[in-house]
Amino acid sequence: MKAKPQALAALPSARLSVSCILIEPMQIWFHCPRCDTALTGFFSDPRGQANVECQACGEEFDISPKANLIIV
Ligand SMILES: [Zn+2]
């Protein structure tokens, strides 16, 4: 017997669910924690980056790996 049909038959009432959502972002930005300038130009998840320099005030800061992602 084939393995896949057997596994499905063993869970007749199992409801399928999606556990991964893929997003292709058009633009990612955050605000400088010192001067609040919106810093743009990121095209991947910037969480966890260290030593990011604000283009406006020159402040250097880190982005928490636990920073909230807000889909707008
Ligand atoms: Zn700044």
- Oligomeric state: single chain
Bound molecules: zinc ion
H/I helix tally? 1
Give the overall form.
elongated
What Rg is obtained from the alpha carbons, in whole angstroms?
A: 21 Å
Tell me the series of helices and strands, N- to C-terminal: HEEEE
Question: Would you mind describing this structure in some detail?
Answer:
This protein has one helix at residues 3-10; strands at 28-31, 38-42, 52-53, 60-61. The chain is of the alpha+beta class. It has a domain at 24-67. The strands form two sheets. It has a two-stranded antiparallel sheet. A two-stranded antiparallel ribbon has the order 3-4. The structure holds zinc ion. The site of zinc ion (ZN) has 8 residues, from loops.
Give short descriptive properties of this protein:
about 70 residues; alpha+beta; two-stranded antiparallel sheet; 4 strands; about 10% helix; binds zinc ion
